[in-house]
Design a protein that fits this description.
The chain has 102 residues and is an alpha+beta fold. The chain has three helices and five strands, in the order H-E-E-E-H-E-H-E. It comes from Rhizobium ruizarguesonis.
Amino acid sequence: MDPLRLAEEWFLSGRQVAVATVLKTWGSAPRPVGSCLVIDQDGNFEGSVSGGCVEGEVIAQAISVIETGSPTLLDFGVADETAWRVGLSCGGRIEVFVERVD
């Protein structure tokens, strides 16, 4: 199912929802620009922004965005210590925007 349609369905059913979207990639990135991950307040998710390597960190940040309502821009790269910690060792870099669905 299309992650954006799912975000709409979840939102309309009363769930609190955030959408994470790949804005930019450099080098060997696991997913293309425009890839989406939909997350609800309980950490349920659908879609992918990184083929699995940084999803855990994106989900954690998305839950914070749901709680605060403040969008955030995440940047993961191979030289970034966070990238190694969360598993982005492909040599690429991705920029992910996370926003709450209102």
